[in-house]
Amino acid sequence: MINIANMAKKLEGHTFLLSANDLKTGKVLFYTSNGWLPELNKAIKIEKKSIEKYEKLLKIDEENCLIVSGRFVELNDSGSIKNLRDKIRSSGLTFKI
Amino acid sequence: MYKYSEIDKKIVANRVKQFKNQVDRRLSGKLTEDEFKPLRLMNGLYLQLHAYMLRVAIPYGELSSKQLRQLAFIADKYDRGYGHFTTRQNIQFNWPKLPDVPEILEELSKVEMHAIQTSGNCIRNISADHLAGLTIEEIEDPRPWCEIIRKWSTFHPEFSFLPRKFKIAVTGCSEDRAAILVHDIGLRLIKDKGDIGFEVFVGGGQGRSPYIAKKIKNFLPKKDLLNYLEAILTTYNQLGRRDNIYKARIKILLNELGIEKFKEFVEENFKRFSNKKLILDKSTIKNIFKFFKLPSLKPGLEKVPEIKNSLFLEWKNQNVLPHKHPNYSIILVSLKSNEKPPGDASSIQMRKLADIADKYSFGEIRVTHEQNLVLPHVENSRVYEIWNELLNINLATPNIGLITDTICCPGMDYCALATARSIPISQKITDHFKNYSHQKEIGDLKIKISGCINACGHHHVGNIGILGLDRKGKEFYQITLGGSAKENASIGQIVGPSFSEKDLMGAIEKIIKVYKKNKIYEKEDFLSVFKRIGIKKFKEKLYDNN
Amino acid sequence: MIIIDKISERKNEFIELPDEKLSKKTSLENCLLNLFHWKEKKKEIHEKKIKVALKINSDEELIFGENDLRYIKMIQINFLNFKDGRPFTLAKKLRKKFLYKGEIRASGNILPDQFVFLLRCGFDTVEIKEMEKDTWLELLEFDDGLYYQP
After folding, report:
1. Average pLDDT for consecutive 10-residue bins of chain C (150 residues)?
2. Residue A27 touches partner B, C-beta closer than 8 Å
């Protein structure tokens, strides 16, 4: 399990999205104003200062068996996802099946 | 092929029930993810980047047509219509849903399959030479031994919570097609003064600290096999490191203790704990061997007819091997076409291949650790016919052993651990070298690609190894040269600084040029040239602008 | 916490002691000694021929002299983490190498899914939370006695 308490300390950027996988389907979800949804464009942007609040939320939703593998997805200055793994995670395979 | 006994059936059925209970407890919150994870892993269920992934065991790589059809059914009903064959002769489904998994396991159990111990810190699926029982030079068929070990290691009460995963491979030949020297335990059947027994190797492995296994026993009598394995595992379970996941494999323990000291512990445990009931008597062995007899093969043509079709001849030259019965051939079915990720097969291909196996090969299929399939017994007179059928489903790529026959892990497209993508690299290589005569000119060459240091794509033992790295958010690829997973096993040497994705193909092209320029006879292969000239000439060519 | 075996449950009959020097009055027979206490009191135990219960953690090494085990009526192996499989080998060792006939008990971070494995490796009892009892017994029912290992 991800040690959420340590997660915030390791984060380097300023703005983040909150993401996780659906416990049942494994599907990638983002935290939106309407709860957990697969749509990346609806995800709430989170400033570093409010991280703790969302950490608690993550913990509660993990305990409520809604999601697993919660994480913060770092955004770059232009507001898009910074690292490649998170990009692939949100947009799918990079080749055709 | 092995057929389940009533006990096998009950044990697997019981497992399905148990896992359903575990999934129910997870979904209702009685089990936390931390508690559930080792339980689901022991049942082959991972959580990857986009979804769950279920790894199904194919013990020693042997499949029946009925089983392959069932895998196709599962791919269609519970997944996205395809499966991925792995370097440990298993198959992975990339998109199952957690509540469906108990049902998938039930469907598997109907064809005597399961996902038991395909992951987790336990003894994993036992792998074997994919040509087991098919070649003249073989001393003895390793499959019955794999089945004996499979049983002993399944739900072993003492060894289900080891420091780390544990992999065993068995071969019956001096030629090693099962990569036994990069396994935690490698077993080779050998003959000593008329007696057949095992040469035992221990502590091989890849990952971030690659090691070639060391020999711990020159000759282990057959009857003592299980007691000796138990002695090694007892030593490992007791002394293996648990403080650092990267130092927890048996290879690290062995190298910290030294082989002599390690051997002392094993011998002491062997003496102390040997269990009479684990001694294999002749009748037990004989009973297992009965399942692995050759089908009744009939006389026919001595040679595969030379049909005047250049595509057929290329394929026959590359993908067809002689069977120990002179009138039969072994067909290697390449899963390295330019249309799919290496090792992937669609449900349509699986179904058709099952039909082809029924029609031409006694309903038998094998999976190789190089992520290809095998049709083990095909009459010489029908090889052309089967080629036509394979061609129709795009499974007649003539590239076995050549540069486009890459081993490749799923990489960052699927895997939560990966640091770079590997499938697109393999596809670039396949595209770049798609011309058969160009490949043939290069000759036998194994490229192995891993998307991270865990080395699932066996890059350490590739003649050319490619390791994907993350350098400040960008994918870079480190190249190693001179690795081998065969009987002459060696770990590849790092050639120098890594290459960007853009520069990688150019680098491979340069490596090939150095090889071609330095070979002294037409058929001298890459590895032999590398061993003769060393890494320096490659370095010079690769970094001559710096 | 309760103690269960395959068929019955009971209250813990031993009192766990704080990690400090024992007073002279402590009645050793009813206490669960740790390795620290054991070393401290070993001589007395041998002299008085008392039978005691001993608790060790899954990461502790068990080093016994020839005669020690006859004075130990119960060994409790405390799992610091359920993924630490050493106690399974330790129990085998106690039974097969030392021919220990007393009770072996598992405690700490263990899962009901491990119950059958524990019993098969030589454990007799487990210490669990009372509210978890039903799950433990339910999982025991999956055990139909069919194993590949002798």
Report:
1. 92 83 75 88 89 93 80 95 96 91 96 96 96 92 92
2. yes
